[in-house]
Amino acid sequence: YGNSRATLVTNEKLYNDDPILRRPFLGGSLISNSGIEIQIDEINRKLILQQTSSADWAYIVDASIDNWSLEFRGSNLGAINQSQRFNSYGMTGCLNLHSSNFYEAEILVNDGGCEDSLNIVNSTGVLSEITINRAYADALDLDFSNLKLNKLAINDAGNDCLDMSGGIYMVDVADLKSCGDKGISVGEASTLNASYLILENANIGVSSKDFSKVEILKASLKDSIVCTEV
């Protein structure tokens, strides 16, 4: 993959003239708009995605992500443009992962300027660590997935730190700081089992709705206006 050539394709759903790039990645596809700079290190099993503008995005689909590290570096150049919520695939994230399997994977996202810094949809498996810093809106959005997170660290989200819907989720340790709205939002009949939650500075600590089930064995909540909401 490191030396593979990207294929320039045209997507009929594009809302502008920005072309997209598609290349093979871990049994699936890595798709992005043309602005993203991509580094694939097969030896060290690491993918680095660098924005050149705040509108750049990446989409990984049908991949088997086994002991890989994914890093998304957001751009601080220019104003963040939120006039378009969705990319041409209907995704709202800076880094989007769809229909993929994880085993001991690590993900780092810094300075995400999208509605979701990281969006994982319809995926399964184990992630050893997810770290997100300085998210413009929601930091992590998990949808319709069955996932175990060994460690989750989020620092500074403009909206929710962790948003879960329509799935089954397990979290060993979550360390969430400076969440603009909710620390954790669980909806659409999801199940969340967490061993240890550290949460500092949120409007609402933990919100459970839509017949969701939340169990947190141990928690430390500080500087939250409302600790729990049902």
From TrEMBL:
This is Right handed beta helix domain-containing protein. It comes from marine metagenome.
